[in-house]
Protein backbone atom coordinates (compact mmCIF):
# COMPACT_ATOMS: atom_id res chain seq x y z
CA UNK A 1 0.00 0.00 0.00
CA UNK A 2 1.48 3.29 -1.11
CA UNK A 3 -1.21 5.81 -0.21
CA UNK A 4 -2.77 5.88 3.26
CA UNK A 5 -4.18 9.40 3.26
CA UNK A 6 -7.96 9.56 3.56
CA UNK A 7 -8.44 5.82 3.97
CA UNK A 8 -10.55 4.36 6.76
CA UNK A 9 -8.89 1.83 9.06
CA UNK A 10 -10.55 -0.54 11.54
CA UNK A 11 -8.33 -1.81 14.38
CA UNK A 12 -9.53 -4.48 16.82
CA UNK A 13 -7.96 -4.58 20.25
CA UNK A 14 -7.10 -1.01 19.38
CA UNK A 15 -7.22 0.60 22.81
CA UNK A 16 -3.82 -0.57 24.09
CA UNK A 17 -0.75 -2.66 23.33
CA UNK A 18 0.02 -3.29 19.66
CA UNK A 19 -3.41 -1.94 18.78
CA UNK A 20 -2.87 1.60 20.04
CA UNK A 21 0.51 1.65 18.31
CA UNK A 22 -1.21 0.78 15.03
CA UNK A 23 -3.90 3.40 15.65
CA UNK A 24 -1.40 6.20 16.28
CA UNK A 25 0.72 5.37 13.24
CA UNK A 26 -2.30 5.06 10.94
CA UNK A 27 -3.51 8.45 12.16
CA UNK A 28 -0.05 9.87 11.48
CA UNK A 29 -0.37 8.57 7.91
CA UNK A 30 -3.62 10.51 7.43
CA UNK A 31 -6.11 7.70 7.96
CA UNK A 32 -9.47 7.89 9.67
CA UNK A 33 -9.34 5.21 12.34
CA UNK A 34 -11.94 3.22 14.27
CA UNK A 35 -10.75 1.77 17.57
CA UNK A 36 -12.66 -1.45 18.28
CA UNK A 37 -12.20 -2.95 21.74
CA UNK A 38 -14.23 -5.00 24.19
CA UNK A 39 -13.61 -2.51 27.03
CA UNK A 40 -15.41 0.82 26.77
CA UNK A 41 -13.27 2.34 29.52
CA UNK A 42 -10.11 1.47 27.57
CA UNK A 43 -11.60 3.01 24.42
CA UNK A 44 -12.45 6.20 26.31
CA UNK A 45 -8.91 6.45 27.70
CA UNK A 46 -7.40 5.91 24.27
CA UNK A 47 -9.64 8.50 22.63
CA UNK A 48 -8.73 11.04 25.31
CA UNK A 49 -5.09 10.83 24.17
CA UNK A 50 -5.97 11.37 20.50
CA UNK A 51 -7.52 14.83 20.48
CA UNK A 52 -8.20 16.59 17.19
CA UNK A 53 -7.87 13.41 15.16
CA UNK A 54 -10.32 11.62 12.86
CA UNK A 55 -10.83 8.72 15.23
CA UNK A 56 -13.84 7.00 16.76
CA UNK A 57 -14.40 4.16 19.19
CA UNK A 58 -16.72 1.18 18.90
CA UNK A 59 -17.21 -1.44 21.60
CA UNK A 60 -16.89 -4.89 20.07
CA UNK A 61 -16.67 -8.51 21.11
CA UNK A 62 -14.76 -9.88 18.11
CA UNK A 63 -16.03 -13.41 18.71
CA UNK A 64 -19.54 -12.27 17.65
CA UNK A 65 -20.28 -12.24 13.92
CA UNK A 66 -23.38 -10.12 14.35
CA UNK A 67 -21.56 -7.60 16.55
CA UNK A 68 -18.86 -7.33 13.91
CA UNK A 69 -21.42 -6.60 11.19
CA UNK A 70 -23.08 -3.92 13.32
CA UNK A 71 -19.72 -2.32 14.14
CA UNK A 72 -18.68 -2.36 10.49
CA UNK A 73 -21.91 -0.66 9.41
CA UNK A 74 -21.54 1.97 12.13
CA UNK A 75 -17.95 2.82 11.21
CA UNK A 76 -18.54 2.90 7.47
CA UNK A 77 -21.58 5.13 7.95
CA UNK A 78 -19.43 7.60 9.88
CA UNK A 79 -16.04 7.38 8.13
CA UNK A 80 -16.70 5.76 4.76
CA UNK A 81 -15.60 2.37 3.38
CA UNK A 82 -12.97 0.52 5.39
CA UNK A 83 -9.97 -0.38 3.23
CA UNK A 84 -7.47 -1.12 6.02
CA UNK A 85 -8.35 -3.87 8.48
CA UNK A 86 -6.15 -4.73 11.45
CA UNK A 87 -7.38 -7.88 13.20
CA UNK A 88 -5.32 -7.40 16.33
CA UNK A 89 -7.46 -8.39 19.35
CA UNK A 90 -6.04 -11.27 21.34
CA UNK A 91 -6.02 -12.99 24.73
CA UNK A 92 -3.72 -15.55 26.31
CA UNK A 93 -3.62 -18.34 28.85
CA UNK A 94 -0.14 -19.24 30.02
CA UNK A 95 -0.72 -22.97 30.48
CA UNK A 96 -0.34 -26.30 28.68
CA UNK A 97 -3.03 -27.99 26.60
CA UNK A 98 -3.40 -30.91 28.98
CA UNK A 99 -4.07 -28.51 31.84
CA UNK A 100 -6.77 -26.70 29.87
CA UNK A 101 -10.55 -27.08 29.63
CA UNK A 102 -13.09 -26.79 26.83
CA UNK A 103 -13.99 -23.36 28.23
CA UNK A 104 -10.36 -22.34 27.79
CA UNK A 105 -10.42 -23.53 24.17
CA UNK A 106 -13.70 -21.79 23.42
CA UNK A 107 -12.47 -18.50 24.85
CA UNK A 108 -9.13 -18.34 23.04
CA UNK A 109 -10.45 -19.73 19.77
CA UNK A 110 -13.34 -17.27 19.93
CA UNK A 111 -11.11 -14.21 20.26
CA UNK A 112 -7.80 -15.14 18.63
CA UNK A 113 -9.03 -17.17 15.66
CA UNK A 114 -12.75 -16.58 15.18
CA UNK A 115 -12.14 -12.87 15.82
CA UNK A 116 -9.80 -12.79 12.82
CA UNK A 117 -12.16 -14.89 10.73
CA UNK A 118 -15.06 -12.61 11.61
CA UNK A 119 -13.05 -9.54 10.68
CA UNK A 120 -12.00 -11.03 7.36
CA UNK A 121 -15.47 -12.31 6.48
CA UNK A 122 -17.09 -9.00 7.44
CA UNK A 123 -14.78 -6.61 5.62
CA UNK A 124 -12.92 -8.45 2.84
CA UNK A 125 -15.99 -9.21 0.68
CA UNK A 126 -16.91 -5.52 0.92
CA UNK A 127 -13.39 -4.55 -0.15
CA UNK A 128 -13.43 -6.98 -3.09
CA UNK A 129 -16.82 -5.79 -4.34
CA UNK A 130 -15.69 -2.17 -4.22
CA UNK A 131 -12.50 -3.00 -6.11
CA UNK A 132 -14.53 -4.85 -8.76
CA UNK A 133 -16.94 -1.91 -9.01
CA UNK A 134 -14.08 0.55 -9.37
CA UNK A 135 -15.05 2.51 -6.26
CA UNK A 136 -12.04 1.42 -4.20
CA UNK A 137 -8.36 1.07 -5.04
CA UNK A 138 -6.73 -1.81 -3.22
CA UNK A 139 -6.61 -2.14 0.53
CA UNK A 140 -4.70 -4.04 3.19
CA UNK A 141 -5.41 -6.59 5.91
CA UNK A 142 -3.03 -7.03 8.85
CA UNK A 143 -3.70 -10.04 11.07
CA UNK A 144 -1.80 -10.09 14.35
CA UNK A 145 -0.42 -13.54 15.09
CA UNK A 146 2.71 -13.84 17.22
CA UNK A 147 6.10 -15.48 17.21
CA UNK A 148 4.02 -18.21 18.86
CA UNK A 149 2.91 -18.95 15.28
CA UNK A 150 6.42 -20.34 14.72
CA UNK A 151 7.63 -21.26 18.21
CA UNK A 152 5.26 -24.00 19.38
CA UNK A 153 6.57 -24.77 22.85
CA UNK A 154 4.47 -26.52 25.53
CA UNK A 155 3.29 -23.21 27.00
CA UNK A 156 1.06 -21.47 25.98
CA UNK A 157 -0.54 -24.41 24.17
CA UNK A 158 -3.94 -23.08 23.07
CA UNK A 159 -2.47 -19.68 22.21
CA UNK A 160 0.10 -21.38 19.96
CA UNK A 161 -2.71 -23.26 18.22
CA UNK A 162 -4.67 -20.10 17.47
CA UNK A 163 -1.63 -18.21 16.23
CA UNK A 164 -0.50 -21.01 13.91
CA UNK A 165 -4.03 -20.92 12.46
CA UNK A 166 -3.93 -17.13 11.98
CA UNK A 167 -0.62 -17.49 10.18
CA UNK A 168 -2.07 -20.11 7.80
CA UNK A 169 -5.20 -18.05 7.17
CA UNK A 170 -3.13 -14.96 6.42
CA UNK A 171 -0.72 -16.69 4.06
CA UNK A 172 -3.59 -18.18 2.04
CA UNK A 173 -5.51 -14.90 1.95
CA UNK A 174 -2.37 -13.03 0.88
CA UNK A 175 -2.22 -14.98 -2.38
CA UNK A 176 -5.94 -15.10 -3.08
CA UNK A 177 -6.31 -11.31 -2.79
CA UNK A 178 -3.33 -10.40 -4.97
CA UNK A 179 -5.61 -10.25 -8.02
CA UNK A 180 -7.57 -7.41 -6.40
CA UNK A 181 -4.58 -5.36 -5.33
CA UNK A 182 -5.43 -6.00 -1.68
CA UNK A 183 -2.40 -6.76 0.47
CA UNK A 184 -2.40 -9.16 3.42
CA UNK A 185 0.23 -9.33 6.13
CA UNK A 186 0.61 -11.43 9.25
CA UNK A 187 2.24 -9.60 12.15
CA UNK A 188 4.39 -11.84 14.35
CA UNK A 189 5.63 -9.79 17.31
CA UNK A 190 7.61 -11.01 20.27
CA UNK A 191 7.30 -9.49 23.73
CA UNK A 192 5.23 -6.30 23.69
CA UNK A 193 4.55 -3.69 26.33
CA UNK A 194 0.87 -4.58 26.74
CA UNK A 195 -1.73 -5.93 29.14
CA UNK A 196 -2.14 -9.39 27.62
CA UNK A 197 -0.87 -10.85 30.88
CA UNK A 198 -4.17 -9.71 32.42
CA UNK A 199 -6.40 -11.39 29.81
CA UNK A 200 -8.51 -13.03 32.52
CA UNK A 201 -9.96 -9.59 33.27
CA UNK A 202 -12.01 -9.76 30.06
CA UNK A 203 -12.90 -13.45 30.10
CA UNK A 204 -16.66 -13.89 29.60
CA UNK A 205 -18.56 -15.18 32.63
CA UNK A 206 -20.09 -17.95 30.51
CA UNK A 207 -16.60 -19.39 29.88
CA UNK A 208 -15.32 -19.24 33.44
CA UNK A 209 -16.90 -22.47 34.65
CA UNK A 210 -13.82 -24.65 34.19
CA UNK A 211 -11.12 -22.00 34.45
CA UNK A 212 -8.19 -22.34 36.83
CA UNK A 213 -8.01 -19.82 39.67
CA UNK A 214 -5.98 -16.76 38.71
CA UNK A 215 -2.52 -16.82 40.29
CA UNK A 216 -1.81 -13.19 41.31
CA UNK A 217 1.90 -13.91 41.78
CA UNK A 218 2.18 -15.32 38.25
CA UNK A 219 0.31 -12.34 36.82
CA UNK A 220 2.69 -10.01 38.64
CA UNK A 221 5.71 -11.83 37.20
CA UNK A 222 4.27 -11.60 33.69
CA UNK A 223 3.58 -7.91 34.20
CA UNK A 224 7.22 -7.40 35.06
CA UNK A 225 8.32 -9.20 31.90
CA UNK A 226 6.00 -7.16 29.70
CA UNK A 227 7.50 -3.94 31.05
CA UNK A 228 10.53 -4.79 28.91
CA UNK A 229 8.38 -5.44 25.83
CA UNK A 230 8.69 -3.44 22.64
CA UNK A 231 6.89 -0.11 22.63
CA UNK A 232 3.64 -0.26 20.61
CA UNK A 233 4.59 2.79 18.54
CA UNK A 234 7.77 1.06 17.36
CA UNK A 235 5.74 -1.92 16.21
CA UNK A 236 3.17 0.34 14.56
CA UNK A 237 5.86 2.11 12.53
CA UNK A 238 7.32 -1.22 11.40
CA UNK A 239 3.88 -2.41 10.33
CA UNK A 240 3.36 0.70 8.19
CA UNK A 241 6.74 0.13 6.51
CA UNK A 242 5.84 -3.52 5.80
CA UNK A 243 2.44 -2.54 4.39
CA UNK A 244 4.15 -0.16 1.97
CA UNK A 245 6.31 -3.05 0.80
CA UNK A 246 3.35 -5.47 0.66
CA UNK A 247 5.33 -7.83 2.90
CA UNK A 248 3.52 -11.01 3.89
CA UNK A 249 5.36 -11.65 7.16
CA UNK A 250 6.00 -8.78 9.53
CA UNK A 251 8.67 -9.71 12.05
CA UNK A 252 8.75 -6.63 14.24
CA UNK A 253 11.25 -8.18 16.67
CA UNK A 254 14.65 -9.20 15.28
CA UNK A 255 15.22 -11.16 18.49
CA UNK A 256 14.03 -14.52 17.13
CA UNK A 257 15.71 -14.77 13.72
CA UNK A 258 18.34 -17.34 14.63
CA UNK A 259 15.90 -19.41 16.67
CA UNK A 260 13.50 -19.61 13.71
CA UNK A 261 16.39 -20.56 11.43
CA UNK A 262 17.34 -23.39 13.79
CA UNK A 263 13.75 -24.64 13.95
CA UNK A 264 13.41 -24.76 10.17
CA UNK A 265 16.77 -26.54 9.90
CA UNK A 266 15.50 -29.11 12.41
CA UNK A 267 12.30 -29.57 10.39
CA UNK A 268 14.24 -30.15 7.16
CA UNK A 269 16.52 -32.59 8.97
CA UNK A 270 13.50 -34.72 9.88
CA UNK A 271 12.81 -35.53 6.22
CA UNK A 272 13.83 -39.13 5.45
CA UNK A 273 15.14 -40.58 2.17
CA UNK A 274 12.53 -43.30 1.77
CA UNK A 275 12.60 -45.65 -1.25
CA UNK A 276 10.08 -44.96 -4.01
CA UNK A 277 6.59 -46.26 -3.26
CA UNK A 278 3.92 -47.21 -5.85
CA UNK A 279 2.59 -44.08 -7.54
CA UNK A 280 5.63 -42.01 -6.58
CA UNK A 281 6.45 -40.72 -10.09
CA UNK A 282 2.85 -39.68 -10.84
CA UNK A 283 2.49 -38.03 -7.45
CA UNK A 284 5.74 -36.11 -7.82
CA UNK A 285 4.68 -34.92 -11.28
CA UNK A 286 1.49 -33.47 -9.80
CA UNK A 287 3.37 -31.92 -6.89
CA UNK A 288 5.76 -30.25 -9.34
CA UNK A 289 2.80 -28.61 -11.08
CA UNK A 290 1.46 -27.41 -7.73
CA UNK A 291 4.88 -26.26 -6.53
CA UNK A 292 5.55 -24.36 -9.77
CA UNK A 293 2.18 -22.60 -9.49
CA UNK A 294 2.85 -21.62 -5.88
CA UNK A 295 6.35 -20.40 -6.77
CA UNK A 296 4.81 -18.21 -9.48
CA UNK A 297 2.34 -16.79 -6.94
CA UNK A 298 5.15 -15.99 -4.51
CA UNK A 299 7.11 -14.31 -7.28
CA UNK A 300 4.06 -12.26 -8.26
CA UNK A 301 3.66 -11.23 -4.63
CA UNK A 302 7.27 -10.07 -4.40
CA UNK A 303 6.92 -8.08 -7.63
CA UNK A 304 3.54 -6.55 -6.74
CA UNK A 305 3.53 -2.76 -6.65
CA UNK A 306 0.28 -1.56 -5.10
Automatic annotation (TrEMBL):
Keywords: NADP, Oxidoreductase. Pfam families: adh_short (PF00106). InterPro entries: NAD(P)-bd_dom_sf (IPR036291), SDR_fam (IPR002347). Belongs to the short-chain dehydrogenases/reductases (SDR) family. This is SDR family NAD(P)-dependent oxidoreductase. The lineage of its organism: Bacteria, Pseudomonadati, Pseudomonadota, Alphaproteobacteria, Sphingomonadales.
Amino acid sequence: MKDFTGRTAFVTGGANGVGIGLVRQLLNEGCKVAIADIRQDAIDKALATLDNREVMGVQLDVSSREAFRIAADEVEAAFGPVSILCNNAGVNLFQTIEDSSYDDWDWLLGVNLHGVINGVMTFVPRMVERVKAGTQTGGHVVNTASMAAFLGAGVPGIYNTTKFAVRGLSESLHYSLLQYGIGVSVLCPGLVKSYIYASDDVRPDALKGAMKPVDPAAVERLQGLHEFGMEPDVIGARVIEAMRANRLHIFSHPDHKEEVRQIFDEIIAEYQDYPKDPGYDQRVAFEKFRADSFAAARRKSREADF
